[in-house]
Amino acid sequence: MSLRSTTGCSTCKTKRKKCDETKPKCLRCTEKGLECQYEYIEPRSSRSTKSRTKPAPRPPSERAKALAKQQLRSRTIREFVDFTETLEKSTGSSNHPRVSSPEITLPLDVDWEALLYESVTAPTLDPFTTSGTSSRSLASQHPAPLGLLTSGQSSLDALFSLEATDPGQSYTLLNPSGLISDSLLELASDSRPSDKGEDEEEIEGFKASFCEARLVLDRRVDSNSMVFVLHSYAQFMPLSIFDPVKAGHRTKQTVIGRYLASPISRSRVVLISEVARRLAQSPNLDEGGKKMLLSLRSQIWQNVSNYQVGEWPLSKEERERARAALVHMVELVNMSTVAPLAYTLRILQLAAPVFLCSFPPPYPPHLPDILLTIRDDIILEHFAVSDVVTSIMTGRPLLCQYYVPWSLELCDEFMKNENSGLRWLFGIPDQFVLLFAYMDGLMKEVKAAGKVVDPNTIKRLEGDISKINISPCKSRDPSLTIARLVVQECWRQAVFIYLYMALCGADAFDPRVQKVQKGFLKLMDGTKPSRNPDVFLIPPMVIAGVATTKSTHQQIIQSRILFMPEFEEANTSGNDSLRILKDIWARTKSEGRPARWQDLREACQRVTGV
């Protein structure tokens, strides 16, 4: 195939004809009696020796496409600017936009109040402070099946495969039209500058496997956005996920599916990736990053609040609509370290009835099945685990009622399939998630009956907690393996504290509580402060903090929480958790008494208002 002429006459170039470049007029123009002229352009550098003529204008079809794309981009930017300006005008001193207390419409022939421990309506304390939005039903957005990818999209999937490859191997990126991108150079790292830790090799290995292409691409080119999305996720995941290597393949498939699902879904994925990229660079977002995160929170809040049940009984399509309303809550909760704890609690409270609509009858949902079933997306198990974890670290009851049988044999099911559950995300073993939910149910039963827990039940649970087997999180770095084991064993001590203080009603001076609390501190003191494991120790540290009475021990917990730079800032989840603990410590000291489990709930309400 001949190359397009770079020195032909203007007439031949305009008509897309091959020019013989005869001077002063070419033969084609002479034969047809057409005007012929050569319009030369200035060379780009003094080293250029060949004169080139001006390129032909683009045909109308190409100009129309370029104009449409430019208008779409301008409209998107204008809408985002208008949105952020509206937020700035109406937020005042608050950090979140307001939604005008929408109610999620649910069928009337189900006892939803029995399934929801909180009201099915949106929280009265809205986390937003801007004008209200409509309550239209959310249109379902279903990700395209990855088995139906185009050739270009399949190449993307192959490019970012997690299979072991030669680090020196070069790659060719195909854009969605199937054309080879010619801007494949070295990809500059956007990772946050930090001292090299013991898990650096593990993290760098994960980044290379998640997004293997080492490229520098032009962000302005639409066909390159997928690469930047995956690269941003790869930079952020090691900072927010307990075992990013295990999460890599599953997360990659989910991100690609959502990116290809629809223009709206794609724009939201790009927005999430941009926030993630900025958080990977620094936990303290600049003004632009804060506006992006604010926009993301608003969009997801509206997604959830706009959901209305379209038909009853719930069909498969209706359940899919409910799941679609919860899309991207996973990423939002994973970014909750830089958000107030109140926001996370409120968005979970708002999403509880939508979560229940994602399941077929009978109700309540079966928690072991939720955790043991491996799905393409982790939306459902993510909500359930978030419900349990936020419950135990704030003292509030679970938002939803679950059916939770308990036995050691059931716990062993998680050992048989290590790909089930969400330990890789939160760091809490799934067996302990089940046990916390089971004890929450027992606590409600005995409270409703006005009784105390059977001592035989307590003795049985004590034995079960000690016998639960937890498979280690394997790592190439032995020190990282030990750090992850410490997190899991700290969770075991936290389960004991919850058993004694929440279920049995013991206070912080109880000998059983003091013994377990000392064991927790000994485990934590055995690891040096570092982001991994400390960021995943925040929930069990809060539980242990309720049982901590000595000022020296309280100072240890405080210093470990504040070791993460983002938690030094107000209105972050870690900082709010520390304020809750300090409220408990100050109140019990002033009243001259040991802490009780009820103090956690009261302190959370004073600090967060939730």
Account of the protein in words:
This protein has 610 residues and is mainly α. The protein has five domains: 1-54, Zn(2)-C6 fungal-type DNA-binding domain (CD2-Gal4, Irregular); 66-141 and 293-351, no CATH class; 142-261, no CATH class; 364-452, no CATH class; 481-608, no CATH class. The protein is 55% helix and 1% strand. The protein has helices spanning 10-14, 27-32, 60-91, 112-115, 151-159, 200-210, 225-240, 244-261, 263-281, 287-305, 316-325, 329-334, 341-356, 367-372, 379-394, 408-416, 423-426, 430-449, 455-467, 478-503, 511-525, 531-534, 538-546, 551-561, 573-591, 598-608, and strands at residues 40-41, 52-53. A two-stranded antiparallel sheet has the order 1-2. The longest helix has 32 residues, at 60-91. Mean pLDDT is 77; it is low at 72-103 and 118-198.
